[in-house]
Amino acid sequence: MAIMGGEETATETIDMVPAEKVKPSQFGEFCRRNGINPNLIMLKITLFVMYGATSSLLPYLTIHMQSIGLTVEEIAIIYLALPFTTFLSPPITGFLVDKFGKYKPVVIMSLLLNALFHHSLLFIPQQEIPGIVPSAFVMRHPDTGDIEVWWSPCPSRECPEEPELDLAVSQCVDYCLLQ
């Protein structure tokens, strides 16, 4: 019993030694006051930058896909994948983080897959826009009523209704808009 008493006394002595307190930094104090977990700050910054970059490019994605010649139906099929990835990614990444116990490899893999799939649009071959580009466009000026003929290689303009026109030119002026 004397030995037990000695062990108890030694244990009590160890418990009574005050632990040295470490004064938290200003950032640590700010995080404590506002309920922020400082261990997750880098994750939050990474996700903010990743989603910010993705959402800033998304409006231009349609324009890019149209410029390489994709049809509206093909663009719709590509955009159909967005809701599925939006709803399926959080449970899958949550499962992987819980399984491995670390979020960093999962976030890095998500960033790499995001970059890979967005850059895979560059591998879609550019298609020629069907149709014949007219050599000239004939229009009636809305203010003067004069008939204007424009030569332009731009495929965004539409052809006039009549394929052939007989014109009598009363005034011929050549303007170069590229100067």
TrEMBL record:
Residues 40-128 form the Major facilitator superfamily associated domain. Keywords: Membrane, Transmembrane, Transmembrane helix. Belongs to the major facilitator superfamily. MFSD6 family. It is a multi-pass membrane protein. Its main location: membrane. Signal peptide: none annotated. It is found in: Membrane. InterPro entries: MFS_assoc_dom (IPR024989), MFS_MFSD6 (IPR051717), MFS_trans_sf (IPR036259). The chain crosses the membrane at residues 41-63, 75-97. GO terms for cellular component: membrane. This is Major facilitator superfamily domain-containing protein 6. The keyword Transmembrane applies.
